[in-house]
Amino acid sequence: MKVLILSPLHRRKGEKIVKENLLPETGLPYYQAQNFWYEGLRILGHDVRLFVYSGFNPELDYYSLLLRSVSEKMGLRTPPIISFLPVWQTQKNLLKLAQEFVPEVVILSGNTDLIFPDTLVRIKKEYKSKLVLLNGLSPVICATRTEKSLTPWFDFVFTNDEYHAVDWKMLGAKKAHALPVSAIDPAFCKPRILTTSEKLDLGCDISFVGSLSPNSLYSERLRLLESLTQFDLKIWSPNEQEILRNPKLSRFYQGQAFAEKMQKIFCATKINLNFHGHTMQAGGNLRTFEIPGCSGFELVDRVNPKWYRIGKELITFTSATDLKHKITYYLSHASQRRNIAVAGYQRTLKEHTYTHRFSKMLKMLAT
Questions:
Q1: What is the pLDDT of residue 97?
Q2: Which residue has better confidence, 65 or 78?
Q3: Given strand 2-8, what is the order of strands in its sheet?
Q4: 203 Cβ partners below 8 Å, 6+ apart?
Q5: If you average pLDDT over residues 240-257, what whole number do you get?
Q6: If we measure between CA atoms, which residue out of 50, 157, 64 comes closest to residue 97?
Q7: Which of 273, 307, 348, 355 has the smallest number of CB atoms closer than 10 Å to its CB?
Q8: Do 62 and 178 fall within a single domain?
Q9: Which residues form the Spore protein YkvP/CgeB glycosyl transferase-like domain (predicted)?
Q10: Which residues contact 63 (CB under 8 A, 6 or more apart)?
Q11: Three-class DSSP category at 52
Q12: Cβ(308)–Cβ(292) under 8 Å?
């Protein structure tokens, strides 16, 4: 099958993108998840192309969309000078690639307005392509104008949360399913061998890696971490200033952690914490799979029991009191901790790789 993936280029905070550091096959940084989508589909034997639609000039993209929005609100046609800006050139380049490749399936990586709805509708009509959205976020809060416009045109929306799938259907999607979208590539996300210095620098009883911006989505994460200050705790997060201004948590802050460093933390830590935002009530985030994918022990607020056996492959908690009780118990039961981590790792390799995800996805598309 001929599959076209449409992906943004993700950059870390403060990161300067150098084209020489991008993968030649995809044009993306090596750590970006869409690389693993690409590889998972190729392993399954499909002919895959990946089109990068944003990321090199984010400021110019922003102003291009602003000009487009103003023009539309004023009922004006796109001025010729604007049509030469990168976002319009992106549409032309995508249409050219579609004409050459003739995709049977087009997969849009969610949360963008930089692919225009009429571009994707044109591809769908001209080449009879199936149009698929992969989006792990809540559509009620995070769906973009493009995604809302395209909702009736998507043949399938795949997401991380069963409630999100229901929301997509209410917005007009023909079919929506909590696949989930998140998974691992076992060639990249795996148990890591640590040096002595890495064990000292990264090792601790309890760790948390993730966003901690003090807003309604993640306020519970902050509250739970603030209840754990009596433990040997280390925190890695991109929200440096917010944490350093927090008198209860500032001394536990270790900086940022991504890719291999994050995986080493999962391996070095006795108990890896995973807290979901308020919008993820019946699903899982990427760390749900990355922690056991590195053979780490995961203590998480909630998880879909179809994905992991609670108490056997990871551990859940129900409150701050229960969280502290579980931490105290498993810190003193190393063999149980290790057995659960190994079982979680085996389950992840068996069911939660991107090869598994896309195999299931394409079978559903074929029905």
A1: 98
A2: 65
A3: 47-54, 2-8, 105-109, 130-134, 156-159, 176-178
A4: 268, 269
A5: 94
A6: 50
A7: 355
A8: yes
A9: 223-362
A10: none
A11: strand
A12: yes
Selection from 262, 317, 252 nearest residue 286 by Cα: 262
Amino acid at 76: L
Q: Does residue 315 share a domain with residue 330?
A: yes
Torsion sign, CA atoms 74, 118, 134, 50: negative
pLDDT, tens digit, for every residue of 310-347?
999 999 999 999 999 999 999 999 999 999 999 999 99
CA-closest candidate to residue 164, choices 146, 181, 185, 150: 181
Tell whether 153 and 208 lie within a shared domain: no
Helix axes 320-331, 219-226, angle to 10 degrees: 50
Name the band, by pLDDT with cuts 50, 70 and 90, for residue 367: confident
Which of these ranges, 10-24, 46-60, 202-216, has the smallest mean pLDDT?
Answer: 10-24
Count of beta carbons in the 10 Å neighbourhood of residue 360: 14
In which residue are the tokens 């057995």 written? 339
The rounded distance, in Å, linking the Cα atoms of 128 and 146 is: 20
Mean pLDDT, range 231-251, rounded to an integer: 95
Instruction: State both tokens at 173.
Output: 């999607």
Task: Provide the residue type at 337 as one letter.
Answer: R
Tokens 């030469």, residue located = 84
Residue 334 DSSP SS3? helix
Q: For the whole prediction, is pTM greater than 0.90?
A: yes
Per the structure, how many domains does the chain have? Answer: 2
Residue 190 located in a structural domain: no
Report H helices in the chain. Answer: 33-43, 58-73, 86-101, 117-127, 139-142, 145-150, 162-170, 196-202, 219-226, 240-244, 259-268, 286-293, 320-331, 334-351, 354-366
Length in residues, the chain: 367
Amino acid letter, 140:
V
The verdict on 15 and 107 lying in the same domain is yes
Report the amino acid identity of residue 94: L
Report residue 320 as tokens.
Answer: 């701050």
Quick check: is 191 in a domain? no
> Among 37-51, 136-150, 185-199, 264-278, which is the least confidently predicted range?
136-150
